[in-house]
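User: Fold this; tokens only.

Assistant: Input:
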Amino acid sequence: GTAPAGSLWRAKRNGSAELAAVHPPDEAGAPEAHRVAVEAALHAGRPVVHSAESRHLLTAVTRAKPATWVAVVEQGAVPPRQQATALEGVSSALRWLVWAIENGLGRERPSAGAELGSEQLLSLLAVALEPQPPTQTALAVTTELASILGAERVSLGRSEGGEVTLRAVSHTANPDPRSALVRSVVTAMQEALDQDAVVNWPAATESGLALGGHRALSGSHGSAVIWTIPLRHGEDLIGALTAEFTTEGNASDSKHAWFRRLTSLLAPALDLRERDGENFWRRCKRLVGEDLPEALGWERVQRRFAFIGIACALVLLGVIPGTHRIAAPAELEGIVQRAIVSPMPAFVAESRRRAGDLVKRGEVLGLLEDAELLLERRKWAAKREQRQKELRAAMASEDRPRVRILRAQIDQADAELELVAEQLRKTRLLAPFDGVVTQGDLSQSLGSPVERGEVLFEVAPLDDYRVVVEVADRDIALVEIGQLGELTLQSLPGEQRGFRVRRITPISSAEEGRNFFRVEATLFEATAELRPGMDGIAKIEVGRRSLFWLMTHSVIEWIQLRWWAWVP
């Protein structure tokens, strides 16, 4: 059919526009309605539909360096629901046309006698710029190109991140990416893109190009001639076109020259259609990764973004405050710990409880040997009985001095018996209250001697605990009574228990190569699963500092100390 009337305009700096081209050619220039539509589009800064009598003027605007271009296309009455699609087609065509003008493409003329010329070229470009989804555009272009070239098959591939994805195969609606044909075509395209060169099969031996993929495609699918040409948009390789012929007669040199000329014009049009079909996230990715660096003129925009991001992060870290917490090993102890000691020199007779056992008040923990005490009690009991008999005889004979002596001896025997009874009672080692045995196991010491005052067991209650935190000497100056903290035990790693510092021991201790101060704290709540002797990590809140200081102060302090030690 007849091509619609249209005009191309170039905007000036003063806001007006000058006519660059008009179709059909007219010495009088473009109609006044076109100029009005151009001014409306420039004022709106976007594509518009301008009504003129019974026609619609589809007006698109594109901004390129160093000028802004406007295209006007006359159409019959366009239904409202189709106007957006029509404007999209005009905008795509205008972007491609501006790119072609600025890059000087299409100026060359076909040689005399060429089999293919501008008519076929324009036909393909019209198909490529048709407003439709990119997949349909790719299929239409490959099918049309196969018909023009007389090829058995034409395939179009898209390159993203160095990997080729097949977009379309002529006369095939949905090519299976798992099929052997598709894999072979993709391999051939990848081969051409990796070498950034036009690859022809069969080729002269002196070409110096790798041809393994094309050789395999020809051998497995019967293609006598294969042409693969990389598609380039600006400096970027965006894909490849592969044409396959079953006979060498259909693949002439003039067709090959036309095919190569076509790709230089077709690549930008296909790239524009591909970009128009991108979803939101792909558009954002391209904006940040490609368009924005190009617009800003940064050669290494990623590095600049990284530098700005790091600088912003450092500023935020220096401004945002955080809680300074000192971490240190900690252990649970009972508030009261009662020691069960040996009351006398003796031997261990029996062990009934050991560390970790729960006990009740008055429960027997262990027994000491009492054989000697029983003999002692029997001896004094016999002496008392003997003195009782002698006392009765002296009273019968009215020997008063003798009576007084015997009564004194009987009182002595009673005292000795009470002493032995008390010692026998102490051979039973009893729990002083309900709690848990925290130390002591006599099961391995049966029959062993113990000294008077030797600690045999330690018992702690289960209802009240203290946290003993071993704060390193470099941090002790920051700890104060009343500060809050949290404790996490190794046996209960998912729970944090609050505490308050109540005592700081002013004397340091050394253990396992480290110096620390003993800091005691009171738990806010004691639960049934807690036991004396449990250990973990405690963190004491000692103030507020910037996040940057919190992350770096330990390293800075270490450097300062080493510097002090190194400087004479």
